[in-house]
Amino acid sequence: MKKFSQLAVPYIAWAVMMLIFPMFLMLLYSFTEHGNSIISFSFTLEHYVKFFSDPDFLLILWRSFGIAVKTTIICLLLGYPLAYFIARSSEKIQNILVLCITIPTWINMLVRTYAWIGLLSDGGPFARLLGLFGFEEVELLYTEFAVLLGMVYNFLPFMILQINTSLCKMDQSLLNASADLGATPAQTFWKVTFPLSLPGVINGITLVFLPAISSFFIPKLLGGGQYFLIGNLIENQFITVGEWNFGSAISMIMAVVMMLLMMVVKKLEVRNQGGKEEK
């Protein structure tokens, strides 16, 4: 036991340096203001008051929630049927389809997002295709549609893989029992398949919603700076404006929001499993 404890020391040290210490610095910056000297700080809540008292910042936060919810809903509506089809296929077909879904994730997300600029730009494949149907002056790039498309494209595999894993682990004898008891395929799906796949659905929603609400380079590239989200605001405060204290405050607000959402998701998962949350 002591040997295993010693082996865990490097991992604990790594977690402290790479996770806990940066979070502590952001928390410190968010509640402090620089004084006259380099090492002098003063406690303040001004950065939090500044964020919640400015309607423009609240609008950006609301817009971020909106785009994240839309992305999650679209990924769920597209991902569940695809995951269901994969889970009901033969083992060989399953491996091929899962490989086709995971291959794009091997490429850097930034590179894949850049590719959509060429596809959606004027004179690109999508613009030419719409031109064949008489839509010659439709602007695709630097719109909410482009941002939403880029997010769905990047985060859809996470939804599919989570739901597919949950469906594949399902006990097939339950489906046979439902059919033997006279249930129709639709009744079997809604009474047996869907409830048993809810853990995968909840995990998929979590893996899509959280990165979608904090994404900054997808709206920056496909929105052209015209579609400003909370991630862009944080980046702007750190990189462009140099307001590290205010940027840290916004980051801490988003961290608290994400932790609250994860707590809600955990409670839903525990309730779905019919168990009690461990204390």
Keywords:
279 residues; mainly alpha; two-stranded antiparallel ribbon; MetI-like fold; 12 helices; globular
Description of the molecule:
- This protein is mostly helical.
- It has a single domain, classed as Orthogonal Bundle (MetI-like fold).
- It is 77% helix and 2% strand.
- The chain contains 12 helices and 2 strands; from the N terminus they run αββααααααααααα.
- A two-stranded antiparallel ribbon has the order 1-2.
- Helix 3 runs antiparallel to helix 9.
- The longest helix is centred in the first third of the chain and has 33 residues.
- The model has no long low-confidence stretch (mean pLDDT 85).
For CATH, the homologous superfamily is named as: MetI-like
Number of helices: 12
Secondary structure: number of strands: 2
| CATH structural class | Mainly Alpha
SSE sequence, one letter per element:
HEEHHHHHHHHHHH
Strand residue percentage: under 5%
Q: Which class do the helix and strand fractions yield? A: mainly alpha
- What is the averaged pLDDT score? 85
The CATH architecture designation is Orthogonal Bundle
How are the SSEs placed, and which strands pair?
Elements lengths: L1 H29 L1 E3 L6 E3 L2 H8 L1 H33 L3 H12 L6 H12 L4 H8 L11 H25 L3 H9 L4 H30 L2 H6 L7 H12 L2 H30 L6
Antiparallel strand pairs: 1-2
